[in-house]
Design goal:
The complex is a heterodimer of chains A (189) and B (391).
Chain A (H helix, E strand, L loop, with lengths): L1 E8 L4 H14 L3 E7 L8 E9 L14 E4 L19 E5 L4 H7 L6 E5 L1 H9 L5 H12 L4 H15 L7 H14 L1 E2 L1
Parallel strand pairs in A: 1-4, 4-5, 5-6
Antiparallel strand pairs in A: 1-3, 2-3, 6-7
Helix pairs in contact in A: 1-4, 1-5, 3-4, 3-6, 4-6, 5-6
Chain B lengths: L2 E5 L1 H12 L3 E4 L7 H12 L5 E4 L3 H13 L4 E5 L1 H16 L5 E6 L13 H5 L6 E5 L2 H18 L3 E6 L7 E6 L2 H8 L26 H30 L6 E4 L6 E4 L3 H15 L4 E6 L1 E3 L3 H8 L4 E6 L10 H12 L6 E5 L9 H17 L6 E3 L5
Parallel strand pairs in B: 2-3, 2-4, 4-5, 5-7, 6-7, 10-11, 10-13, 13-14, 14-15
Antiparallel strand pairs in B: 1-8, 6-12, 9-11
Helix pairs in contact in B: 1-2, 1-6, 3-4, 6-8, 9-12, 10-11
The chains are: A alpha/beta (189), B alpha/beta (391).
């Protein structure tokens, strides 16, 4: 079973990203969980969301305490929230940032595992003309976790967007562009 | 053919309601059950269902409207949580006293004060003696299945049914689920043809009128008898459901209990978490098991007592506290049944998870560790414990 913890700020779409990832994994035949930890739900306040992805039925219903992966939707959370808490030693952290990866590695302190970065906000701004980094982060985390290959991801997301944006078909292609770019542009290891 | 889907608990229940297509839904929104009337009102607006949706001004009115519609002969549903259920309490008793098969979906949430939107079972446990059948659900699948079965159970037992599942943990978590085809649900629940109803021009009756010293008691005895008889009805309906879906439900579920030496009784989503703990313990050779009641009303006290009889130590877990200087409600009732069955095993009570305090496999592990100590020493130092609380 793979466990993922998402850190974002209220309103940035970390919950949506966790549900999109759950969707994508579900479509490849997996058992999934996707759920946010509901707090005061203030815009801009730190929040977390979770995923479990498994080959077998998932019975556990607690939050995730020892994730395999951590995704940081907003790099201003570094230093403000204990992002690496419980992260497995062989695990990885993905940060949405415009900063240099070495700088991020340094800011994260002495984490021994893998560090990845993606400038999802830039990709989103360029493709969607708005800052919705979650689809790009989704593509990046799929690349890192290898829960499916690129072709399956693209096929999956196209189906999902057709459904989700049935009334706004013009946004499907820009979202697909963002996914393709993010899958390729994630760096680190 | 089962439809493989991924839905949150609320989405699953709203889907079941869409497939049931009740005559009337009356509801007032409250977290975490709000999405149910929200999704359902979409179905109404889109013409997917032919239900009359009544957006009432309070939960008291919601249950009142349900009572009126059900007495008139309709198939009727509502959804609520926490304070909403508390506000319905007066009318819950009337729904049951009038023997109306209303379905109430309760996304379990703590009761104030302090204000808290998260899960425990204080709301439904506070309504345990209202005459509602109560079915508890571990996950979205069980919430969906129990909602569909509840229709048939209620109509056959002539009792209202409360379907209880954990707020946020189940209501807002997206998980895999197998849905029935619309036609399968339609055929399974069938048409509702009430024996007695107010809008029957050929047979004028009164419902819920004054009953004084000469008859009130008899009505209440009949209500109590109906609850006893509902046990067989739940089993019947569940076996009919198993024939359609292949999913088997009893009055309770056992997990690794038959040869267990230490066991717990636990409701809803934490039972799933506890199953993982049982597996961890079994892998180390510890004979751990659990029992998860599905029906708390009616309480299958003879059957449950019988299942627990070989344990060396038992913990009964309550996600609600009776502020009675003794124990939580599940403990009181099950130990009372054990006493009358002359079953004397060391039994302790844990109150856990109030207001959404997360329940981890490690928390459940501390309960089993306590039980192992008790099993080996035969001594109980303290009956009631609070799990993972700051003192």
């Amino acid at each position: 079973m793979i466990e993922i913890r998402w850190h974002g700020r209220g309103g940035q779409g970390a919950k949506t990203a966790s549900l999109l990832l759950a969707d994508a994994a579900f479509n490849t035949g997996k058992f999934i969980q996707g759920f946010p930890e509901y707090g005061p739900e203030r815009m801009g306040a730190p929040m977390t969301a979770y995923n479990r992805i498994s080959e077998t039925e998932i019975r556990i219903h607690s939050n995730v305490y020892e994730p395999d992966y951590v995704v940081v939707v907003d790099d201003s959370l570094i230093g403000a929230v204990d992002l690496l808490k419980g992260l497995k030693e062989g695990g990885a952290v993905l940060v949405n940032t415009a900063e240099n990866i070495e700088k991020i590695r340094e800011k994260l302190g002495n984490f021994k595992g893998r560090v990845y970065t993606i400038d999802a906000s830039k990709i989103s701004n360029e493709c969607l003309k708005a800052n919705y980094p979650n689809t790009s982060l989704l593509a990046a985390i799929v690349n890192i976790t290898k829960i499916m290959n690129k072709e399956d991801l693209l096929e999956n997301m196209l189906e999902s967007f057709k459904h989700k944006f049935s009334r706004k078909p013009e946004v499907i292609e820009p979202n697909m562009q963002a996914i393709k770019r993010a899958y390729d542009e994630v760096i680190g290891g | 053919m089962a439809i493989r889907e991924r839905l949150s608990g609320n989405e699953a229940v709203a889907t079941a309601m869409k497939q049931i297509n009740p005559d009337v839904v009356a509801a007032y929104p409250i977290t975490p059950s709000t999405e149910i009337p929200q999704y359902f009102s979409n179905f109404v607006a889109n013409g997917t269902v032919s239900t009359e949706f009544i957006p009432v001004e309070s939960e008291h009115s919601a249950m009142s409207a349900c009572i009126g519609a059900s007495a008139a002969g309709g198939r009727v549903m509502t959804a609520t949580s926490s304070q909403g259920l508390a506000y319905m309490w007066e009318m819950l008793n009337i729904a049951a006293g009038m023997r109306l098969p209303i379905i109430l979906i309760d996304a379990n949430r703590a009761i104030s004060a302090p204000i808290n939107i998260h899960n425990d079972h204080s709301d439904s446990m506070g309504a345990r003696d209202t005459g509602f059948i109560q079915l508890y659900c571990e996950n979205n699948q069980e919430a969906y299945d129990n909602t569909i079965m509840a229709v048939k159970i209620a109509e056959r037992a002539k009792l209202p049914v409360m379907v209880c599942y954990d707020g946020f943990i189940t209501s807002h978590s997206v998980e895999n689920i197998l849905l029935m085809e619309d036609e399968e649900v339609k055929n399974f629940i069938g048409e509702y043809t009430p024996e007695e109803y107010l809008l029957n021009p050929d047979r004028n009756i009164s419902m819920g009128p004054l009953a004084l010293q000469d008859s009130f008691f008899e009505f209440r005895k009949q209500l109590a008898d109906a609850m006893v008889e509902s046990k067989e009805i739940i089993k019947e309906v569940s076996s009919e459901f198993a024939k359609v879906t292949g999913r088997n439900y009893g009055l309770y579920e056992k997990y690794m209990l038959d040869d267990a030496e230490v066991g717990i009784v636990i409701l809803n989503s934490s039972a799933g978490t506890a199953k993982d703990t049982v597996d961890e313990l079994r892998a180390k050779g510890v004979k751990a098991g659990l029992l998860k009641p599905r029906a708390f009303r009616p309480l299958p006290y003879v059957e449950i007592t019988n299942e627990l009889k070989n344990l060396k130590a038992l913990a009964i877990m309550d996600k609600a506290d009776s502020i009675n200087a003794y124990s939580g409600p599940l403990f009181s009732e099950i130990t009372s049944a054990m006493y009358t069955a002359k079953l004397d095993i060391p039994t302790i009570n844990y109150v856990y998870g109030l207001g959404g305090r997360d329940v981890k496999t490690d928390d459940i592990l501390t309960v089993y560790e306590k039980l192992l100590q008790i099993a080996s020493s035969g001594k109980i130092d303290q009956v009631k414990h609070y799990l993972n609380v700051e003192e």
